[in-house]
Amino acid sequence: MRDFNALLPLTAIVAVLVLYNCKVNCQTSQNINVLFINEVDNDPASKAVEVVETYLKKNAQYGLTLRIERIEANKTDAKDLLETSVPSETVKSFTQALGLPTISASYGQEGDLRQWRDIDANKQKYLLQIMPPADIIPEVVRSIVRKMNITNAAILYDETFIMDHKYKSLLQNIQTRHVIARITQGDRERTEEIEKLRNLDINNFFLLGSLRTIGPVLEAVKPAYFQRNFAWHVITQDEGEIASKRDNATLMFLKPVVYAQRRERLGQLRTTYNLNESPQIMTVFYFDLALRAFLTVRDMIQANAWAKDMIYMGCDDYQGENTPIRNLDLKEYFIKVNEPTSYGQFELVSEQGKPFNGYSYVKFEMDIDMVEIRGGNSVNSKPIGRWTSGLDTPLMIKDEKAINNLTADTVYRVYTVLQAPFIMRDPKAPKGYKGYCIDLINEIAAIVHFDYSIQEVEDGKFGNMDENGHWNGVVKKLIDKQADIGLGSMSVMAEREIVIDYTVPYYDLVGITIMMQRPSAPSSLFKFLTVLETNVWLCILAAYFFTSFLMWIFDRWSPYSYQNNREKYKDDDEKREFNLKECLWFCMTSLTPQGGGEAPKNLSGRLVAATWWLFGFIIIASYTANLAAFLTVSRLDTPVESLDDLAKQYKILYAPLNGSSAMTYFERMANIEQMFYEIWKDLSLNDSLTPLERSKLAVWDYPVSDKYTKMWQAMQEAQLPANLEEAVARVRNSTSATGFAFLGDATDIRYLVMTNCDLQVVGEEFSRKPYAIAVQQGSHLKDQFNNAILTLLNKRQLEKLKEKWWKNDEIQAKCDKPEDQSDGISIENIGGVFIVIFVGIGMACITLLFEYWWYKYRKNPRIIDVTEAVPSGKRGKIPEGIILGRTEKHGNVKSNIVLRSRFNQYPSKTPKPRF
Prior knowledge:
The protein has five domains: 14-130 and 273-342, Rossmann fold (3-Layer(aba) Sandwich), CATH 3.40.50; 135-263 and 365-405, Response regulator (Rossmann fold, 3-Layer(aba) Sandwich); 411-507, Periplasmic binding protein-like II (D-Maltodextrin-Binding Protein, domain 2, 3-Layer(aba) Sandwich), CATH 3.40.190; 527-634, Helix Hairpins (Orthogonal Bundle), CATH 1.10.287; 643-770 and 799-818, D-Maltodextrin-Binding Protein, domain 2 (3-Layer(aba) Sandwich). It contains 26 helices and 29 strands. Helix 1 (43-58) packs across helix 9 (280-302), helix 9 crosses helix 10 (330-336) and helix 18 crosses helix 20 (707-718). The radius of gyration is 55 Å and the shape is elongated.
């Protein structure tokens, strides 16, 4: 490096600007030799330094003369400092090592300044870095994200901004997924770039660039990306308005503010000194910084704060640790310079004792407007706030409602599969669907604050992997980034967790169960009559009439019967003449607990009665036992009660849905059994085993069950239903000869049974797995949904949803209670006995009417004569209770009727009573 006697290094341009202090050659004007190191293509900085040189020449009152030596720097070539090109970071290295006072306008905060990161307090006074506006303006993105609670962001920038060092620091410690990318050239490339960002579930876009770049970018965006679920923020260093052929777009627009008191200075620089490089804020920043740096050196020299005999070290003299000690406080004099600026004041601040470098900047303001573009023109621009440049400076909003309208509604894409009661179509519902999961996602949305759109997958499946490792259904949508959320009765499976993420389960463990047609046992009011066969009933009836007739014959012809030997039995209390009517009545009542009454007097008749009693006892006992067994057996007719029962029989076909988790379970269990069999077979046929080892494997039967292998084969032969409707139809079309059982998720089957009276659940659940919400792998929604579901679980909201959709569902079928083994006999099977009672009572009523009619209208009694009997000595009075005799004649039949008189007085000549 060339030796500079009495030089002052000063760095301050985009990459680096270095100024070197020079000795004073005269008393009226101070000559300063400047080493200006500027990055390639940084035209605003080059132009600004040229204008400063001209400005000082035209304004002699400053008393400064400059001799500037220029060097271009880049980021790749590491050549000698005084050759044509050097890397910008190299400048900081040698200025620190050689102790050269430097003012730098390089980009970056403290962590980005690798060469000046850990400089001591003495070096902090003469090695200064001021962040340019293009480096501080991107910090507004951080303020917007915090203000609007943005969870995802795409930050696109053009050549007017340098963002390489912002990838880590811009949104550090903020839970926002973000992408920072350079705006590509060409409309097609820009459209593809936006599409790729959208596939990353980003709906908040920040465009940082010049107005000539912003317009074409907006035009390359699809119209759908300007809907309410997207937000666009345009940030520029220019002062003009947005010009775009975009139609129907509303966005946030931020640009620097130029105060009225500074417009005259800017106008003078543009017109008088031709400082017209764009962006203006950067050009005038370099102008103000260079001018202030030169004035700082002038003031230090005038105040004797700059040693006149300061010695500068050459590169060859540097030994690694011999950096000169400078007693310079460049920072203090820089702050004291009284020179107007164009946009704002320089802020040299330190945060919590940290160095000034990385925290110093120009303090200016930016307007925040809401701009509406209609028909390619900005039809409305409404000021809604202002932002003051700085690190973590909040937005100053004066219209909260307007800025809320600029917030992108978080709308997630939900894919689902119809499955009652989890997901059901409902045209009247807000989203067109209703069910348990719809209520669940609405509860989560109220906590996490988002909206969603929902649609069904085309194949109607949650997702299975084929032999080639390809997925279908909801899982495929999540893998391809076409869905944000997979909703429904989706089981947590190990292979799915490899490619997607699950939230915590929202539903208890759910297994596979069996659904069959409910057996409909035929009921009959006269079922008690079917206990005995018809021929048995006829035989009993024949025995009844035969016994009754035989008893009448025996009573009529036996000399010891009552009717043939009345004198012998005249003193008995009960006298019964067994005519044919009495015999029929006796045999009938003998079968009842009431008994038949007085038995015949003759021995032969009693033997007949005893025989009938024995017959009746056996018949009644047999009937009673048979009736109980008959009614019990009709309720025990359940051929399948478990999965094992289903596997052991061949009469009933069974199968799960094709492509369902139940099908996957049986297929895998069969494959595992097959692998176990191959292992056992290889062990048994292994020739390397000793005879003793082989004998331990010698068994007659295969030691591992092959239940699932046989079941899987039977399922394939039965043909798996394509959907749930087909499965239910096959179950309903089952007959006793060709039955069908469906194996599926227990929740689906329980709901079908609850809403259909002809279906039933058989057996216990097996292969139980929880239900959870699926999200993309690595999605931020997992943690948010986990917290929301746990909150709902603690509030017992999930239990209330179960009550709503499983117990209080309005479409729940009102089914008759199925007969249970512990239940009594139903009225449908025993109601005939009540009919018998009602029929008997009806016949008795009819008989009573007939008797009344017969007695009153068919007998027609006629009085023949009346014999009066009066006790001796009491003629003329007939005491109460005197018996009158009357003889009636009905055709050829005579009958004597005895009447009791109630006369108190009877005349001497008693008149004949009239009947």
